[in-house]
Amino acid sequence: MEINLDPEVLKAYGYTKENIKINQIGTGLINRTYLLSPLSEDKKYILQNINTSVFKNPQAIANNLKAIADYIASTYPDYLFIKPVSTVDGDELAYVNNEYWRMLPFVANTTSLDVLDNEKQAYEAAKQFGKLSRLLNKFDASKLEPSIPGFHNLALRFEQFTLALSTAPKELKGLSKPQIDDALERKYILDFFKSYSHRVDFPDRVMHHDTKISNVLLDNETFEGVCVIDLDTIMPGKFISDLGDMMRTYLCAFSENETDLDKVKIRLSFFEATVKGYLSEMKSILTETEKELVLFSGKYMIYMQALRFLTDFLNGNIYYPINYQTQNLDRAKNQFKLLSELSANEKELQDIIEENLV
Ligand code: GN1
Ligand code: MG
């Protein structure tokens, strides 16, 4: 397939179409991603177009990554933090024809997975995300600017849902009635969060905010975690964001796009591996309040994602790309099923957490 990439973007990094091989890669819903293989180098690069309708302030991302990279370089020089490659003009971003681009080094001998097929992968991934927050425990999170304001703010997501509900056409509301009821009924998750959010020992930390499995690089041979990638949403947040999104995306053998809800079940052994991996890094820094919220993290993130998909369906699918009209509604159904599976297994899951907190 011919890849239609603006030559000016390559030029910003000192390349031309003639001296580079280009492949489009990645499965994310938000940014376009390419793999660049310069013919004269052993190294490869990842080039990404930043979706500015989602990331309205790309400079914030560049500043955040620079601040963290500088801190890591002086504090943990052996830690592999994938910071952007500078343009020939020395900038962290290339601005070409009203679009922002950034380039990252490709890490050789690693793979990124789209689906998890064994527990070790869950453990390794969770450990990598935990390690990032642990190493940045002393870094002042307030130095970072939110790259998407209110990104994991459940109160805001609930507000956006109620707004969508008040403006959605009757037909869409009719189609999604059971999910609207689910969303309203589960508002206790938001209320529960609010009862904790002002506690002083529930701090803002540096969180990754997109902990799906494809955002971790694993060693090709040993399958050990090497580093985390996709750092656009690194910003201050609560620890529940990262662990919760891992529960959302690692526990079920099928993705949020699965429409056969009988398949939406949670795998206890993957839960155990995820919690073990995350806590192996974070146990020593989590506060007593945070430790109470380990299982809640999954509820918070799954509920939020269900709300986001349902909201987008009611808004006429303006945010998440879809393959068919009711896909966001199906995704919301999937997430509500996952949420009820988590609740149905609560006792066993809490036992696993307790074992891993001692
Ligand atoms: C988006 O593009 P991707 O797949 O990395 C979204 C996440 C959602 C996810 C659901 C910036 O992530 O928050 O959890 O879709 N990212 C943004 O698939 O909205
Ligand atoms: Mg992402």
Automatic annotation (TrEMBL):
Residues 22-252 form the Aminoglycoside phosphotransferase domain. InterPro entries: Aminoglycoside_PTrfase, Kinase-like_dom_sf, Pseudomonas-type_ThrB. Transmembrane segments: none annotated. It comes from Pedobacter ginsengiterrae. It comes from the Bacteria. This is Phosphotransferase.
